[in-house]
Each structure stands twice: as structure tokens, then as C-alpha cells.
Design a protein that fits this description.
Layout: H1 8-21, H2 31-43, E1 52-53, H3 55-62, H4 66-78, E2 82-83, E3 90-92, H5 97-118, H6 124-142, H7 146-163, H8 167-187, H9 200-210, H10 213-229, H11 242-245
Antiparallel strand pairs: 1-3, 2-3
């Protein structure tokens, strides 16, 4: 994999240094701590697809046994966040081009229906919460706070998924939001503003709050069409610094 050409020993040393500098012993880590740390780093595209996740280095970083690290990595693999073959090191999921297209096709179907079902169901407080997320996303974009903007963009879609009356579809959408974030991190073209496409989210919120279900569903699908069209489906390259990404304090 071209994402991180460093040796496993170098990666482990880097994570070990992060553990030393990140507030060692300040709090007790669990498999949930490790899961959340890696999950959020992938979700916000700070930890690129293909990144290696050495068990030894992670156990030293979080101050836990390898069995706890292994439990977290197993959960991450079951949620399609990481991939791991028998006797192989875990890596952040690295979907291929065809799988990327399938992920977007599935998300269009699911999110379109979720959006249609949510339209007209939000109360005043729920509508205010949605608009607050959109305002925060726009503010982060204007300030050039890329990581926070990505977090806000994902939070908007996650919020809609959690508001869906059909929670089976909602949970499917939550998974697809993460998997879409992974492929955006892998294939985004230089300068892409990850899921921030003008006022799409603002327009979508207006339609949902007004109860215009069909129009909202159509806009959600068009939003994803546009985002997929911005991807550069070529092989990515470049180094990463796991130590700075998974800092644990």
C-alpha cells in the first residue's frame, strides 16, 4: 500500500513517541476508547485509507493489553472501518473503485428514502438543531477549519439518520455515511471541500422542515451524485503521521 511506506517498526516507534508526549497515565483506556479514537479519525478523514494499525504500538499508546486492542480492531472490522486478514496487521479500510461506486449507489437509495421519511416530522427543537449544525458547518468552511467542517458535514447526515422513523434504514445510513467518508478520503481530488457543496445542506433542511418529501429526497440524491462526480478515481499516495492523528490524552 502506498499510503504509509514506513516500516512497521517505524510506525510503532512513532506511536510510542505519541504515547509519551500525549499525557501518559492521565486516564484509563478501554476497547471503546480505542474504537472511538480510530473511528473518529477515519470519519473526519484524518486517518487515510490503507493506514496501518499495529497492535503493539496501539497497546503502548493507550496503555492497555494487546487483547483489548484486538477487541477494538475486531469491532472496527465488523463495522467496515478497518480490514484485517488472518495473521495480518489491521489497516483502515481501502475500498476499490467498483466498491466505491456501489457504496454511493447504496447510499443514494437509502438516504433518499430516509430523507423522504424524515420530511415533515421534525418538531421545532429538532429543526433548530439541524439548522444549528448547518450554520456551524458553514462557519467552519468560512474559517478554513477543514477537519471541523468535515465533522459538521457528517453530523448533519448522521442527525437525519437518527431522526428517521424507520430505524433500520437509519442505521444503514449511519454505516454508509462512514463508508462514504472513507472513500472520499481515499479518492477526493485536490481542493475538494468534502461534502460542502454550496448551500445544499441548507436547501435540504428547508425542504425537510417544510415537509416537501419528494423534493428533499431528490436533492439528497443529487447532492450525492455531485459529490461522487468530484472524486478522482486514481491511486492515492503520500505519507501519514499516525502519532499526530491518534494522539491520546
Amino acid at each position: 500500500m502506498a499510503v504509509d511506506p514506513r516500516t512497521d517498526k517505524q510506525a510503532a516507534a512513532s506511536l510510542g513517541a505519541m504515547h509519551t508526549n500525549g499525557g501518559q497515565g492521565s486516564r484509563k483506556a478501554t476497547d471503546q476508547t480505542i474504537y472511538d479514537s480510530i473511528y473518529q479519525a477515519v470519519l473526519t478523514q484524518r486517518l487515510p485509507p490503507g493506514s496501518k494499525l499495529p497492535e503493539v504500538a496501539l497497546s503502548e499508546l493507550f496503555g492497555v493489553s494487546r487483547s483489548i486492542v484486538r477487541k477494538a480492531l475486531t469491532r472496527l472490522a465488523s463495522d467496515h472501518v478497518t480490514e484485517q486478514s488472518p495473521n495480518q496487521m489491521a489497516v483502515v479500510a481501502r475500498p476499490g473503485i467498483e466498491e466505491t461506486r456501489q457504496i454511493f449507489a447504496a447510499r443514494r437509495l437509502v438516504e433518499g428514502e430516509v430523507t423522504r421519511l424524515v420530511a415533515g416530522t421534525l418538531g421545532k427543537s429538532e429543526a433548530q438543531a439541524l439548522r444549528k449544525l448547518i450554520k456551524e458547518e458553514k462557519s467552519a468552511h468560512e474559517r478554513g477549519q477543514d477537519q471541523h467542517r468535515v465533522h459538521c458535514s457528517m453530523a448533519i447526515h448522521q442527525y437525519l439518520a437518527r431522526q428517521c422513523p424507520n430505524q433500520v434504514l437509519g442505521k444503514m445510513m449511519l454505516e454508509l455515511v462512514l463508508r462514504t467518508s472513507i472513500v472520499i478520503a481515499l479518492y477526493k481530488a485536490p481542493g475538494i471541500t468534502a461534502c460542502f457543496l454550496g448551500n445544499d445542506h441548507g436547501r435540504l433542511a428547508d425542504l425537510i422542515i417544510k415537509g416537501e418529501a419528494d423534493q428533499a429526497a431528490q436533492l439528497a440524491r443529487e447532492h450525492l451524485d455531485t459529490l461522487e462526480g468530484l472524486l478522482d478515481l486514481d491511486e492515492p499516495s503520500g505519507d501519514i503521521d499516525l502519532a499526530s492523528i491518534l494522539r491520546y490524552t
